[in-house]
Amino acid sequence: MEDRLNDILSELFSAEPEDITPDTDFYDDLYADSLDMLELSMILEEEFDLTKRDIKAMSHYTTVGQVMDYIENM
Predict the structure, then answer these.
(1) Degrees (nearest 5) of the Cα angle 6, 13, 36?
(2) How many whole angstroms separate alpha carbon 46 and alpha carbon 62?
(3) Which residues are catalytic?
(4) How far apart (Å, rounded) are the C-alpha atoms in residues 11 and 51?
(5) pLDDT tens for residues 17-73?
(6) Quick one: which of 18, 26, 28, 10 has its CA closest to 66?
(7) 38 is in which domain, residue-wise?
(8) How many domains does the chain have?
(9) Which of 10, 31, 33, 66 lies at a CB distance of 3.0 to 4.6 Å from 17, suitable for a disulfide?
């Protein structure tokens, strides 16, 4: 799951997969904006079979690790 998430993030944000860690901040490190985060939520919803409720729960997360933990523990 971690590798797949890193692949998604590297493609979406044009970052090297090896540069993405659990501490990577979407806004400070990947320079995401609200549209990027909306696109990411749609991708994650489809890729990891998340519900709208899951996406809403993750909406306040700012790091890759927070999202990864949520997906792993659902």
Answers:
(1) 110
(2) 20
(3) 33
(4) 23
(5) 899 999 999 999 999 999 999 999 999 999 999 999 999 999 999 999 999 999 999
(6) 26
(7) 2-72
(8) 1
(9) 10
